[in-house]
Amino acid sequence: MHPSPLLLALSLALPAPALADALALQCGQLFDPASGRNLPARTVVVADGKVREVREGHGAVEGASAVDLRGHTCSPGWIDLHVHLGGESSPQAYSEGFRLDPEFTVLRSTAYARRTLHAGFTTVRDLGGETTLALRDAIDQGWIEGPRILAAGKSIATTGGHADPTNGLNDRFAHALGEPGPAEGVVNSPDQARRAVRQRYKDGSDVIKITATGGVLSYARSGDAPQFTVDEVAAIVQTARDYGYSVAAHAHGKEGMRRAIVGGVDSIEHGTYMDDEVFALMKKHGTWYVPTVSAGRFVAEKAKIDGYYPEVVRPKAARIGPQIQDTLSRAWRSGVKIAFGTDAGVGLHGDNADEFVFMVEAGMPPAEALRSATIHAATVLRRDDLGRVAPGLPADIVAVPGDPLADITVVRRADFVMKDGKVVRQPE
């Protein structure tokens, strides 16, 4: 049957269906990571959790509620590639493992997750902490508010290494717990390294983290000694590739970095004692650098306070922490690929945007600092759906008053945050 002329005319006269719960974000300007510049006067139309379109100007959008951000610069939601949402620095941090149950830790981490999201960071990579896997899943289910999390779970270390969970225990405790192995993230051969990666897969991790050298805050003397052989690193990387994982390597000392890069890791975290030889090796292998200047500055400051860190930690914090910003400066000038990370948890959650300011102080142009937390960080995560504002992509958007390309410090005042199309913070 053919429709009657009257019905056809009525159907043609009906308005187009409205966009369900649509918002029209009227941005004074929109930072474009691809070009590294601000696009003037843009309206971002959001519906069903995604960007529907990006229009020039601030015209009304039929069926959508306007959000006035005309005094703001909008940006893709920021990505922090190095956080630890399971804890936060304090003088009590070293005893908490003996006093606090995992249930308390994960409940407390919900506050850290909320702070991080409200600071403008819609996605994070959590590089170490078993309870963060549960936090990630709770956020994904919509039970609690927080950023999208890609979690490493337990970091992989060698015996006595930076992520050996028995460091600092007396003999009685150590013998009671037994020798940690691959399930606990401690390996001493390529075969054990492969088992540790497979265990992370079983646990539900999204990424692999290794501690290629000693660390500042671990209860051990050296903060920079190499702690894996090249064969062990290569076994981790090869096995990780089987499961589609990328591999991030905590590293301070040069030799540990060299072994990690040759072994095939995707990123070097911290990188304190990098030099021209390491820069050249990273460029040859396409390795990313995630500086975490924030953590370096934080531990250097706290090392001045009696009793804040154990005495075995304090000299490492005083020596290594102040150097990372200078390393970033030299790495930027050398042409190493740089992506954004703070090591929040070593410092305070919610202060993540300080890293932008420190990057610019180190010589990076503001646009490059912003790109490091958008398209470059998305590349490290292998997520081409993140780090941009474009039709069809998740609506992750942060807005700051003013222009961060003219004054990078405005990133500390982010007052509009949207994740997956849901407004979680907006100007009063």
Structure description:
The longest helix is centred in the first third of the chain and has 17 residues, at 102-118. Residues 1-18 have low confidence and may be disordered. This protein starts with a helix and ends with a strand. The radius of gyration is 23 Å and the shape is globular. α10 packs across α11 (314-320). The protein has helices at residues 5-13, 93-99, 102-118, 132-140, 171-177, 190-203, 230-242, 254-263, 276-285, 293-302, 314-320, 324-334, 354-361, 366-372, 375-381, and strands at residues 22-32, 37-47, 50-56, 64-76, 78-83, 121-126, 148-151, 157-158, 186-187, 208-211, 247-251, 267-270, 288-290, 337-338, 397-401, 416-419, 422-425. The strands form four sheets. The protein has a seven-stranded mixed sheet with strand order 3-2-1-4-15-16-17, with no helix packed on it. A five-stranded parallel sheet has the order 10-11-12-13-14, with helices on one face. Strands 5-6-7 form a three-stranded parallel sheet, with helices on both faces. It contains 15 helices and 17 strands. The chain has 428 residues and is an alpha/beta fold. 34% of the residues lie in helices and 22% in strands. The relative contact order is 0.15. β1 and β2 (37-47) form a beta hairpin.
